[in-house]
Design goal:
The chain is α/β, with parallel strands linked by helices. It is 40% helix and 15% strand.
Length: 695
């Protein structure tokens, strides 16, 4: 990962205070940043110092944002993809006077970021962590840390604006016309996810999107020429972006002209290349510091002198700076927000049904009866693949939740995630609900997160093995607690002839290892219906649906327990009085457990089958419920899953066993693979009986 660092320390005479309130505000952003990093003895002062003029120009002259209503739906979005430069954002939030709101959008009566918060930069419990965190600090639009993710998020936000505008804007009622700005650096440009996202944005002609690229030619290891010397502007021209160069990061007029050009561009996204110069401390200091370190007291003092700043003051905000900067932002943003609210009030009179729907969207709520059309599936020994069942359920839900939208990384025919009644989201048709992300799994993940951050119930799909290409955005969806839905099909060695490169083994454990994500692997069509119901029900955490390519028997729910037990993560599917052995399984392996249960029962052996589609949900249940499903007295427990063994020990215990995968798979028909790796009814019966024999 290559965090970039920039500082625009030039000749002392050039840096002297020119007396204007604009320059005073810019230097306040710089000195707050260097003081915060110095006190924490941790962080990156260079980029905030260099880009202070850029941030100032954007926020004071262009950003449509009301500090008193930071969740105004039509606000412009500002994404700091260079998350290591967090002090730039915290300084802007503080000086703009953004008011803090809680998770319900209610004001707390506090500043979003106070001067005290800035003094506590990177400290435990502060609102100013090392990298910005969504939900943690009001004014932060997304969690940025891994470089490139914010770039991808911004594309998702721009897509969301276009979709919302297409659905809800009506003649005379422009409810959605906001822009999305992302500040990025050399590290972002090196990460592949930004290339994937930029290519998609260019294809979609998202003219409401502007990336501001800090081109300083420096990364952690030194000059970017060590590994990166391409013409990035030319690359973005090839992507179909409008490319503008600003030769000096300190030239606010040139920056304003570039931003004005963006606002006038209506046929493509805009890429502004801002050139800045690296240089630590003051020209007088005679030394350099490593990137990502505090400047040191002496360099801080000399740099302040170069700015014409009091060198004996820390966290100094001169009189007039807050009033000036907050006034610039609020005087533009507040009237726009008030006019928007008046437009919405009139909209309700003319477009009442759409207004009610929009209220639900923005509140992350669902309409009454949203799940009424979810199908139930009759018992069928031949069955249906859970990916096929999932497609049927998805199409039933979107009839009542039209903002449940998404697509796949070029695999919709295989993942079955096409919305049958909908058109594609493409240039000229931003109202389409089917998204074509191309073979860009990583970019898809970051884009879907941006859509979810804009209140859409967004999903992205691919084969489970390709989770490897998009783990970072999946992890971030859990950190941010947003309701993205990840649909993963081809979930096991059941892929068959495609072989070990396409057969996921460790991926179930990988997902389970991420805190705060609900991974559900349903066993049949009816559990798949319940899995989609669970995924859509709660927008406060992401869900990964793990679905099969091969057909799974649809269990007879008159004979076995109802699939609504999925809501609790694990449930007793088939039982006996005083069971001697418990068979625990997920997904396609549940039918093996049922088959073994019936054989054991015929032989007079009392068994219990537990379907355990979601560890996440099971762990949230009461101890009493857990005991009712997995009683401690039954120590003969066998877990069956076509994945790695890691984690199953918590449920089978020291006396239990597993039938799992300890190697990669192989290329062969599924029946041959099942025999080779022990996923047969006979092997389950044999293993269960052997446990009882050794007791």
């Amino acid at each position: 990962m290559s965090d970039t660092e920039t500082t625009t320390i030039r000749d002392v005479d050039q840096l002297q205070e020119d007396g204007s309130i604009e320059r005073l505000t810019i230097d306040t952003i710089r000195t707050l940043s260097m003081d915060a990093v110095q006190k924490a003895n941790s962080g990156h002062p260079g980029t905030p110092m260099a880009l202070a003029p850029v941030g100032y120009t954007l926020w004071s002259q262009f950003l449509r944002y009301d500090p008193s209503k930071p969740d105004w739906p039509n606000r412009d979005r500002f994404v700091l993809s260079v998350g290591h430069a967090s002090m730039l954002l915290y300084s802007l939030i503080h000086l703009a006077g953004i008011e803090e709101i809680d998770k319900d959008g209610k004001k707390t009566g506090k500043e979003a970021v106070s001067l005290e918060d800035i003094e506590n930069f990177r400290q435990l419990g502060s609102k100013t962590p090392g990298h910005p965190e969504y939900r943690h600090t009001t004014g932060v639009e997304t969690t940025t840390g891994p470089l490139g993710q914010g770039c991808g998020n911004s594309v998702g936000m721009a897509i969301a604006e276009r979709w919302l505008a297409a659905r809800y804007n009506k003649p005379g009622f422009d409810l959605f016309d906001h822009d999305v700005y992302a500040l990025c650096g050399d590290g972002d440009m090196m990460e592949g996810v930004s290339a994937e996202a930029a290519s998609l944005a260019g294809h979609l002609r998202l003219s409401n999107l502007c990336w501001i690229y800090d081109s300083n030619h420096i990364s952690i290891e030194g000059a970017t020429s060590l590994a990166f010397d391409e013409d990035v502007g030319k690359r973005f021209e090839a992507y179909g972006w409008n490319v503008i160069h600003v030769n000096d990061a300190n030239d606010c007029d040139a920056m304003a002209q570039a931003l004005a050009a963006f606002r006038k561009t209506d046929d493509r996204p805009t890429f502004i290349v801002v050139h800045s110069v690296i240089g630590w401390g003051s020209p007088r200091a005679g030394s350099e510091k490593a990137h990502g370190e505090a400047l040191g007291e002496e360099n801080v003092k000399l740099t302040k002198q170069a700015y014409g700043w009091p060198d004996d003051k820390s966290f100094y905000v001169p009189d007039g700076v807050v009033n000036h900067f907050s006034g610039c932002v609020a005087d533009r943003g507040r009237p726009l927000r008030e006019a928007w609210e008046q437009t919405l009030a009139s909209y309700r009179d003319t477009w009442g049904d759409l207004a009610k729907e929009l209220d639900l969207v923005l509140a992350d709520k669902l309409p009454d009866g949203w799940d009424a059309d979810i199908p139930t599936f009759d018992a069928d020994e031949k069955g249906i693949a859970s990916r096929d069942a999932g497609g049927k359920v998805l199409n039933a839900i979107v009839k009542n939740v039209p903002w449940l939208i998404g697509g796949s990384a070029d695999l919709a025919p295989s993942t079955k995630t096409d919305i049958k009644s909908a058109e594609s989201f493409e240039p000229g048709n931003y109202g389409g609900a089917n998204f074509h992300f191309g073979v860009r799994e990583h970019g898809m993940g970051a884009v879907v997160n941006g859509m979810a951050l804009s209140h859409l119930r967004a999903y992205g799909s691919t084969f489970l093995v390709f989770l490897d290409y998009m783990r970072a955005p999946v992890r971030l969806s859990a950190i941010m607690e947003i309701g993205a839905v990840w649909v993963y099909t081809h979930d096991s060695i059941g892929v068959g002839e495609d072989g070990p490169t396409h057969q996921p083994i460790e991926h179930l454990a990988t997902l389970r290892a991420i805190p705060g994500i609900d991974m559900i692997r349903p066993c049949d069509a009816n559990e798949t219906a319940e899995a989609w119901r669970a995924a859509v029900s709660d927008a406060n955490y992401p869900t990964a649906l793990i679905l099969s390519r091969q057909a799974l028997p649809t269990l007879d729910r008159q004979k076995y327990a109802s699939a609504d037990g999925l809501a609790k993560g694990a449930y007793v599917l088939a039982d006996s009085d005083d069971p001697q052995v418990i068979l625990i399984a997920t997904g396609s392996e549940v039918s093996l457990a049922i088959g073994a249960y019936e054989k054991l029962k015929a032989e007079g052996i009392a068994a219990r089958v537990v379907s355990m589609p979601s560890w996440f949900r099971y762990e949230r249940q009461s101890d009493a419920y857990k005991e009712s499903v997995l009683p401690k007295k039954v120590t003969a427990r066998l877990a069956i899953e076509m994945g790695g063994e890691i984690g199953w020990d918590r449920y089978v215990g020291l006396s239990g066993r597993t039938i799992t995968m300890s190697t990669f798979g192989a290329s062969a028909p599924l029946a041959k693979l099942a025999d080779k790796f022990g996923f047969t009814v006979d092997n389950v019966v044999k293993t269960a009986k052997s446990m009882l024999e050794t007791k």
